[in-house]
Amino acid sequence: MHAMTLEAQPYTLMPGEIDHGKPFLPERFTPLAHTSLYEKLSPEQRLRYNQLTGMLFNEQFMFFESLLGECLLLPVIARADDPELREGLRHFMEEEKRHSEVFAELNRRCAPDLYRDSRFHFLHMPPAWMRAMRWTASRANRFPFLLWLITIQEERAVAYARGFEAEEGGLEPHFADIQRKHLADEMSHVEYDDLLVERYWDSARPAVRRVNARLLSWTLFEFFCAPRRSGVKVVDHLIRAHGDLLPLRPEILASFRSLDRSPEYVRSMYGPDVIPETLEKMRAYPEFASFLSRLETACAPREGQTP
Ligand SMILES: [Fe+2]
Ligand SMILES: [Fe+2]
User: Fold this and answer.
1) Nearest by Cα to 122 from 233, 204, 14, 2
2) Domain ranges of the chain
3) Which residues touch 205 (CB under 8 Å, ≥6 apart)?
4) CA 20 to 30 Å from 34, out of 3, 94, 147, 230?
């Protein structure tokens, strides 16, 4: 574990202006592309929706990376008894911090007006919820479900970066480049995630694990599946520039709400092609049986639906 490579990755943003004529991310990563309403958007509206979602996407990375670094890792590092491990975790934390800085810089370059005063424009967490999340994250021994949440998000980050790689030629070059660099760093993080799970999950009492497995299931489906407030903010931003979409707003929001029940969408978020390793690890823990079966049901094609 400690023998992992620690060479610093040159994690910097390429110079040059953003190409606003190209999508910022593969279409299948954007929620609206998973609904029939997408067909009603003009090519120009689709492109702008894609770009706005790309910026939200960067904000989501920043959110998870700062939750992991500032809240979760700091106390874990302070408690780590082994200096080599402490050093490795500190390096891990520094990398996540750097990623967040570069994602923020990329968004500022895309839309200086939106990000003049804050690193977050679309992602909105109610302050009380944010405080609760930070409080929980800094107590990994009592709430180790967050380690699994982060493990899931990190494996998703790797799958997403591979998706960028596959469509690189057609995407905005700064976005494709930063995802390529992100992939290199994130692959090594998986080892740290495993170590943290080993330390905090495996040593927790069975009752704590059972409660935390339920917390993971609730948090994931409630907050990190179908688009909620941030997805609506993206749509409203799009509508401000394309007023002809206003009559479609109620339908779009309803279609977002229904994405939780769309097997194709849930699979694209947490399916076996996206987080295979995490799902495999979870199968070793009986406390995740109900979460895994809920996820499997949510991903299974329904009768009359194309897989
Ligand atoms: Fe990262
Ligand atoms: Fe990471």
Assistant:
1) 233
2) 27-299
3) none
4) 147
d(CA 61, ligand 1 centre) in Å: 7
Q: How far is CA 72 from CA 79, 245, 300, in A?
A: 12, 41, 33
Neighbours of ion ligand 2 (CB under 5 A): 154, 186, 189
Centre of ligand 1 from the C-alpha of residue 133, in Å: 19
Question: Which helix (H) or strand (E) is 99 found in, with range?
Answer: helix 83-110
% of the chain exceeding 90 in pLDDT: 63
Q: By percentage, how much of the chain surpasses pLDDT 70?
A: 95
CA 129 – ligand 2 centroid, Å: 23
Rounded CA gap, 253 and 258, in Å? 9
Coil, strand or helix at 219: helix
Residue 114, CA distances (Å) to 36, 51, 218, 243 in order: 29, 13, 32, 19
Q: What's 27-299's CATH class?
A: mainly alpha
Distance in Å, CA 177 to ligand 2 centroid = 17
Please give the distance, rounded to the nearest whole angstrom, from the Cα atom of residue 300 to the centre of ligand 1.
30
Q: Nearest bound ligand to CA 193?
A: 2
- In angstroms, the CA 192 to CA 2 distance is 9
Predicted TM-score (pTM) of this structure: 0.89
Distance of CA 305 from the midpoint of ligand 1 (Å): 35
Instruction: Label residue 205 left, alpha or beta by phi (over 0 means left) and psi (-120 to 50 means alpha).
Output: beta
Give the distance (Å) from ligand 1 centre to CA of residue 268: 20
N residues, the chain: 307
pLDDT at residue 196, as a whole number: 87
